[in-house]
Structure formats: structure tokens, C-alpha cells
Amino acid sequence: MQEMRELRAGAGLGGHGGGNRWQMRELAKGEHFDWPIIRRALEAFVPYWKHAILVSFVILATSVGGVVPAWLTQQIIDEGIDKRRMSVVIFFTLALILTAIATGLISVLQTWLSNLIAQNVMADYRMTLFRHLQRQTVSFFASRQAGDLVSRVTNDVTAIQNVVTTTIVGFLSNLLSIAATLFMMFSMNWKLAVLAVIVVPGFVIPTQRVGRARQELQAKIQEWLSRMTVQLSESLGVSGALLIRIFNRQAAEEAQFAESNARLRDLQVRQALIGRWLFMWLGMFSSIGPALLWGYGGWLVIHHQIGLGVIVAFTTLLSRLYGPLNQLAQVHVSVLSSVALFRRIFALLDTEPEVRDGDVSIPPNSVQGQIRLEHVWFSYPSTGEAKAPQDAPVRWALKDVSLTIEPGETVALVGPSGAGKTTLLNLIPRFSDASRGQLYLDGMDVKSLTLTSLRSQMGLVPQDPFFFHDTVVNNLRLAKPDATQAEMEAACRAAQIHDTIAALPQGYETVVGERGYRLSGGERQRLAIARVLLQNPKIVLLDEATSSLDTVVERQIQEALAVLLQGRTAVMIAHRLSTILKSDKIVVMEKGRVIAVGTHHSLVHHNPLYTRLYETQFQVEP
Ligand SMILES: Nc1ncnc2c1ncn2[C@@H]1O[C@H](COP(=O)(O)OP(=O)(O)OP(=O)(O)O)[C@@H](O)[C@H]1O
Predict the structure, then answer these.
(1) Same fold, 1-188+327-354 and 466-536
(2) Domain residue ranges of the chain, discontinuous segments joined by +
(3) What percent of the chain shows pLDDT beyond 90?
(4) Model confidence over 234-290: pLDDT tens digits?
(5) How would you class 484 by CB atoms within 10 Å of its CB: exposed for 0-12, middle for 13-18, buried for 19 or more?
(6) Phi, psi at 561, each rounded to 5°
């Protein structure tokens, strides 16, 4: 629930409007003025210091420009109209028009500059985050929700816009506006200025209090809304609907919905009323303030202490005092919500990649393909929601695994679910590093090699191969960017997939993947094999699909595999008897340990676990 709320809070911060302020307040809850974070956040603005200085001058000009019309109006009334001097009236009227044009132009400049800074800082952060995420290991992504990461890179960063416009520019322009207004008021008439300032608490305090009450209600509304949304999406989805009907939960579901429905209704009525009272109060005050001004100011005019123009000027200045004061009173919320946002961004930036790059670069296909594991132990780091308590015993996914795979050998990893087969396979391309022990490629410690050169030596056929939403050609070219059409077709022929691709609507130019043309499981596997063939690595890592396939597809895959394995070192998580029979060596794993190594014949009647797997799990082709 908390995570969802964080997501929502992050999601909405880019926009403007009523809910936005609530979300900022929600984010700011429990936050404090964390100076190191504020300093680090400001560092991102350093490259744009010239723009920042310029924008400060522009804000100063807008603030001063905002009070000038009040002074000009006073001049028109007191020096022009009152003294019947038309030339003065014309002069100051023109000045009024020019000021309006000038402030309009300056405000455009301000918007342009502040957006330029915000968008640049945002683009910098997006790039830094994306680059940083590219350096993370696969298990980093396994332990996080994809949606959360996407939201950090998009929404959290988008919220930086808010930091610039609301927090920095807002703070500065409100402060300067108030200063300019007060200066103007006190220089016109200090007595009236004091009266105007006395009225301030009447404006600011109720707005603050009612604002807080509204936000608390809004928090409750959001909570009930989210409960309702969860219930709706669960109960109106096929699986949920099925579950509800099987367990006869319709009545209970209705009761639950009725409760959130009623709560929402009551809360929203209350929220609407709170708003009404505030508007009534503010409406009243925005009339009472000027009324008091007119009353007292009128007395001063009658006693010849001020001109009529001063009162008129004061009434326009009043709005320039109360609005900014109100906003300034809320600035701590936007500062704190910005701190919370940057804290989230920095937390992500500070996660060190689990796998560090080595220095030694080996040319592609220069290795023999010997893989050696020496006393390898591995435990998955616990992160996020799955974080284990400090004193919890380490859960080893691999325990003291020692194994040598000779060049050109085909090795099948077998074992029950959770035995550690995938974990072992993932250590070879360094998707993760062993917690203890060493892994060698041709006698070289894999940690000493650069990740790029290490990975270019090996091809991977995962259990459920993934293709980008792109053409077949571009998905194939991931393996070899300069592959010619002929090379690609040759690889696809060898992998028994050419005919299938040729028959697609646009042949090799058909878009496949996520929302493109859906290839079947067997087709995906063969296309993945073609991709590895194109890459032509010395080492092949393969996670065989568990699903049963029909005879034709099965034969096609076996033929494709036969080509793939020729002259290469292969480590396969095997599920099919035919694959296992073809391998030179079978490694039997259980609970993270290697319990036996041998051929099918040496194991089948001598290793009880292997015998059991053989009898129950290995899929025998029809
Ligand atoms: N990302 C992860 N985070 C934490 N634990 C994990 C992670 N992936 C796997 N494990 C745990 O590590 C152990 C070994 O898992 P692994 O996936 O290597 O087994 P496997 O033999 O490949 O199983 P299967 O045949 O079901 O895929 C299991 O206990 C599993 O729960």
C-alpha cells in the first residue's frame, strides 16, 4: 500500500492543481530539511548557473514590475485627475500600458528560462539514472518491481520541474513580491501599510488551517479510492471474478464495496463543505480588507493627510501582499517534498552495481571455452520488501560447487526445482558474482575480464526468449550488428526457423516482440538459437523450455540444437531426455550442491535422485 501511495505521489507531482498539493504534502510527511540532500540536489543546477543568475534578475524585475502599476495609478489620480492635469494623466496612462507590456514580456522570459533549467536538469537526471541502471545486474531487476523503476526515471524526475517552478522560482518571486509591495506601501503611507499588515493573519491563518484539514481529508479520500480501485480491478478481472464465484463471495464483495462507497461519499461531502467555508471566509476578508482601508483611508483623505490615489493604489497592492504571503507560508511543504523526491532518486543512484567490471579485455572468440568453478558459494542479496532480518541465517542458492567443463563439452545441469541450476548458469556470464570461491574461463579469473569481452564469448538461449518490439532483422542484429541478410537467413535455416519467418506477413521485416507478431514458444526458442548462431560464440548457455512440444517442433528444435552445440562448449539446463542423452556430462544438483557428475548410463541406476528425475521429470519425446 505504501509503495502504491509513493508511486501515485510520484506520478502526480509533475502536474499542477488541487491533488498535486496533497501529493506534495503526502511526500513531505516525516521528511526534514536534510542539508546534505539539498546541497547534492542543488549541485545538478551548477552547470546552469548563468541561466540561474539571469532568472533571478528576471524575477526581481517581475516583482518590481508588479507593484509599479499601483504607484502609476496613484500618480494618475493624485497628480493628474485631482489636479486636472491631462498631460500627466496621458503620461502615466502610457507608462501603465508600457509596464503591462514589459512585465508580460519579462514573464515570458521567466517561464522560458526556468523551464530551460528544469528540463535540462531533468534530462541530465534521466540520463544519469538510465546509465546507472544499465550497469546493474539482472538480480537487481529481479528484486524490484519494473513499474517502480520506470516511475523513478520518469515521474520522480518529471517532478523536478515542480522543484524549480514551485520551490525555487516560487519562493524567490513571492519573497521579492512581498518585499517590493511592503516597500511601496510603507513609502506611500506607513499608517495604511500597518493596517494592511495587521489584516494579514486573517488571511493566512485560516487558509493554512483549512488547507491542512482539506489535505488530511484528501489523504483519507485517496486511501479509500485506492481501496476501491484495487477491489474493482481485482473483482472485475477474469481471474478475480472466477475466484469470487467459486467461493461464493459475491455478497461479501458487495458489502466491502458498499463500505468504501459510503466512506467516499461522506468524505467528499465533508471536503466540499470545508472548501466552501474557506471560500466564504476568504471572500469576506477580501472585501473586509479593502473596506477597512477605505474607511481609515477615507478619514485620512478627508483630513488631507493622503490623496485618494493612495487608497486606490493600496487596494491593488493588497492582493499582491496576501497571495504571495499565503504561498510563502506553504513553501516548506514543497521544499520537504523535493527533499523526499531527491532522496528517492539518490537512493537509486547510490546502489552500487553488484558486478564490477574487470580490466582485461579478450578479443571475441579467442578463448578455448574451458569453464572452471572452484568452491563456489552463492546467496542472493536480499533487497526491498524481501529484506531478511539482520540475524537471519544465509540462504545459500549454491553451496561449495566445484566443476570443470572442458572446451567443446556439452554439459547438462539437472535437478529438482530450486536446486540452483539457473543460479549456476547466471554466474558464467557474470549476471551475478559468486559470494565465495572462483570462476575461471580458460584459467582466467572471470572477475579480471571486462564484462563486454567476457559476454561476447558466450551466447544465451533463455527458457522464454525475449524479443524487442522491433523487426525480426533488428532482433537478429542484436547478436551481430553488421550481419548481412544472407548471414541471417543462413543462421535461421540452420535453426529451422527460416521458413516460418519467410511466411510471416512482412517476412524478415515483420515486427515481433511485446506488441508485435506473437511467435509461439517453439518459434521463439528457434529464433533465439538463430540469434546465437549468428553471434557464433565459443560458449553456449541454454535454459531449455519445459513445455512439451509436438513431434515436428521438437525435432526442429533438436536439429537446431545439434547445429548450435557443434564445436562449442555448452552448459544447458536440460529438461528433455534427448538433450540429456546427447550431453557429454550430466551434473546432478540438489539444494545448491552438485551431488553427482556422470553420463546417463553411469547415473541412471546408481544415483537415486537422478533415477527419480529420469522417471518423473524428463520429458520423453513422443
Ligand atoms: N532473484 C532471487 N532472489 C532470491 N532468491 C532467489 C532468486 N532467484 C532464485 N532464488 C532462490 O535460489 C534458489 C535456487 O534457484 P534457481 O532458480 O537457481 O533454481 P533452479 O534449479 O533453476 O530451479 P527451476 O528449475 O525451478 O528454475 C531457490 O531457492 C530460489 O528460491
Answers:
(1) no
(2) 1-188+327-354, 190-305, 466-536
(3) 37
(4) 888 777 888 888 888 899 999 999 999 999 999 989 888 876 777 777 777 777 878
(5) exposed
(6) -65, -40
Using the Cα atoms of residue 204, residue 209, residue 210 and residue 211 in order, give the sign of their dihedral: positive
Residues 6+ apart with CB under 8 A from 67: 177, 180, 181, 183, 184, 317, 320
ipTM confidence: 0.95
Nearest protein Cα to ligand 1, atom 4: 380
What are 412-426's pLDDT values in tens digits?
Answer: 999 998 999 999 999
369: number of Cβ within 10 Å: 22
Q: Per-residue pLDDT tens for 522-540?
A: 888 889 999 999 988 899 9
Query: Other CB atoms closer than 10 Å to residue 444's CB: what's the count?
Result: 16
List the residue whose alpha carbon is closest to atom 6 of ligand 1.
Answer: 380
For residue 561, pLDDT over 90 is answered with: no
Out of 171-185, 217-231, 340-354, give the one with best mean pLDDT: 171-185
Pocket of ligand 1 (CB under 6 A): 139, 142-143, 380, 397, 415, 417-423
- Which of 395, 399, 423, 618 gets mutated to test ligand 1 (max ligand atoms within 8 A of its CB)? 423
- CATH of 1-188+327-354 among 1.10.760.10, 3.30.70.270, 1.25.40.10, 1.20.1560.10: 1.20.1560.10
Q: pLDDT: is 514 or 420 the higher one?
A: 420
CA distances from 602 to 569, 586, 610 (A): 22, 10, 10
Sheet holding 371-378, edge to edge: 398-405, 371-378, 436-441, 444-445
- Please tell me the class of the 466-536 domain: alpha beta
Cell 558466450 belongs to 458
Distance, CA 380 to ligand 1 centroid (Å)? 9
Contacts 24+ apart (CB under 8 A), 346-349: 346/37, 346/40, 348/129, 348/132, 348/133, 348/149, 348/152, 349/128, 349/129, 349/132
